[in-house]
Every structure is written in structure tokens, then in C-alpha cells.
Design a protein that fits this description.
With 299 residues, this protein is an alpha+beta fold. Helix content is 30%, strand content 30%. It contains 8 helices and 13 strands.
Length: 299
């Protein structure tokens, strides 16, 4: 009953030092509630969602870190794709503010002494300046259509968005005069001298394109068109983080890293897309995937 529960709570509270009670209460004000559910779960695939309900003030701060990026290419399905639309400078400043607040008001419970030490370590790291090539970074995408390690081959692209991208590229090229590449931020594709760069002949084509705040590299068939298209693609509202992968193709290309014995529970999973974003209710994690045809459970 209610009276008995209240008695137990009083007894247990008396066994916990007051500083620890205060620290736990402080943590519970920011720890998220978790809600999990699904929109679809059938023989064809699944659409699942996880929501971390955070205080409105924290959600607003996280939403302010999001930037705009071109949507990840949807077709053809990639072996692996990863994209982020996050203001790196603002994110580090926000994290530094949090660790600063924690250092100003450290946990008083002895059990959390190691947590205070961890906060001090992270705060010191966040105070260090970023390497110049990462300053002003606002997003990236890595798309691997297909690849092999031996022999080295494949196709895909890398796109970087940031305030100082063009300056960084020119600084890097100035340190590699043997490449003899003249780059202007007009979005036109420039063929990369693969032989001079020591890249094996199994990779036959690679192009680079630059805009004032974007740089793209594409390799494989149609690399010139691809580099030019991606570096000039319109920005759009994008999740903080997006990832897609084709698990059967990954297992096929890299059997040494995706052993069947270690992925028995995922033997039916085909392509999967995952995104992490911020909404009115908190942090959203959405996952969409497809199954192999046939029964979902191994007999």
C-alpha cells in the first residue's frame, strides 16, 4: 500500500548520504525518458522509432546545432553511406559550456568522484583548439557504392561542407606541389592525377570539385559528373546523423569482419537506414529496413 511504500522509501533514503541523494536528484532532471515503438513490422521489413524525451531547453539547444546538407543519394543502394549535418564549432562550444557548468558545481557524492575526474579531462580536451581543417565544419557525407580491398577498387564520394573549406584545400595543395593541381571554387570537376598520387591503376577515375564552402571527391564511373553534382546540390533540412548500409553486400565483400557466426541474429536483414534527429519531443532515432524473402525466424 501507499503507507508501506512511503515507509520503505524513507528507510532507504536514510541509508543514502544526503549529498548522494542531491546528486541523483540533479541527474534525474536531465536524464531522458525513453519511448520505443514501430510503425510497421511485417514480412517485407520494419519501420521502428526510438524517442529520448529530453527537457525542452536541451532539445532547443541540440536543434540549434543542426545545419543544412544535401540529402544522401537514395539510389542506387549504397554498400555504406554516412552523413552528418552538425555545426562542429557550435557543438564543441555547447559541450564545453556543459562541462564548465559541471566543474563549477561538481558532484559531492563520493561514489561520483570518478565522474568529476572524467568531466575535468573532457573539459580540458574541449578547450584545445581544433585542427584548422576541422574548424568551421558544418557537415559531411561518405558514400561507398561498392569496394574491394584486394585489388583496391570501388566507387563512391566524399562531400565536406564548412566555412573554410576552400582555404583549407588551397593550404593542403600548397604542401603537395608535385600534384600540380590548379583548383578554383567554381564547382567544375578536376581530374585527379592518380598515378602521381601513388594510387593503383585498379581505380581508373577520380575527380575533385570545389565551391567556396564545399568540396567533393568522387571515384569510379561518372566521377566527374558526380563530383560536380554533389558539390552543387541544394542544401536541405537534414537529420543530425544519417546512415544506410547493405548488410548482405558487406558480408560478401568483407567476410573476415562480418562472420556469419557473429551475425546469426541478423541473417534476415537486408538494407537498413538509420537517422538521428531533434524534434519537439526530444531526440528521435528512426530505423527502416527490409528482410530477405521467407520466414523471419530460423528453424
Amino acid at each position: 500500500n501507499v503507507a508501506l511504500s512511503s515507509t520503505f522509501a524513507t528507510v532507504f533514503a536514510s541509508l543514502i548520504p544526503q549529498p548522494c541523494q542531491d546528486d541523483v536528484a540533479r541527474m534525474t532532471t536531465v536524464l531522458p525518458r525513453i519511448a520505443f515503438g514501430y510503425h510497421r513490422f511485417d514480412e517485407h521489413g520494419f519501420e521502428m522509432a526510438l524517442t529520448l524525451e529530453v527537457p525542452a531547453a536541451i532539445g532547443k539547444q541540440l536543434a540549434s546545432l543542426r545545419t543544412t546538407m544535401p540529402a544522401l543519394p537514395a539510389a542506387p543502394p549504397a554498400l555504406f553511406a554516412l552523413g552528418a549535418a552538425v555545426d562542429v564549432d557550435a557543438t564543441i562550444a555547447w559541450l564545453h559550456e556543459i562541462t564548465g557548468q559541471l566543474r563549477a558545481h561538481p558532484f559531492r557524492c563520493e561514489a561520483f568522484a570518478s565522474l568529476n575526474h572524467a568531466v575535468d579531462t573532457v573539459d580540458a580536451k574541449l578547450a584545445e583548439p581544433l585542427p584548422s581543417m576541422f574548424q568551421g565544419l558544418r557537415g559531411f557525407e561518405i558514400v561507398v557504392d561498392d569496394m574491394t580491398i584486394l585489388p583496391p577498387s570501388g566507387s563512391g564520394e566524399v562531400l565536406l561542407e564548412g566555412a573554410h573549406i576552400a582555404d583549407t584545400v588551397h593550404q593542403l595543395l600548397a604542401k603537395q606541389p608535385q600534384l600540380a593541381i590548379a583548383v578554383t571554387p567554381d564547382g567544375r570537376p578536376i581530374e585527379l592525377p592518380l598515378a602521381r598520387m601513388g594510387i593503383p591503376s585498379t581505380i581508373s577515375s577520380a575527380h575533385f570539385a570545389l565551391r567556396p564552402t564545399r568540396a567533393a571527391i568522387a571515384i569510379g564511373n561518372r566521377s566527374a559528373e558526380r563530383a560536380s553534382t554533389r558539390v552543387s546540390a541544394p542544401g536541405a533540412r537534414a537529420p543530425l546523423l544519417s546512415m544506410t548500409y547493405d548488410l548482405p553486400k558487406l558480408r560478401e565483400r568483407f567476410p573476415e569482419y562480418f562472420k556469419e557466426s557473429e551475425f546469426q541474429g541478423l541473417w534476415t536483414v537486408m538494407s537498413t537506414a538509420l537517422s538521428l534527429d531533434i524534434g519537439d519531443d526530444g531526440i528521435y532515432v528512426d530505423m527502416v529496413g527490409t528482410w530477405k524473402h521467407g520466414a523471419l525466424i530460423r528453424r
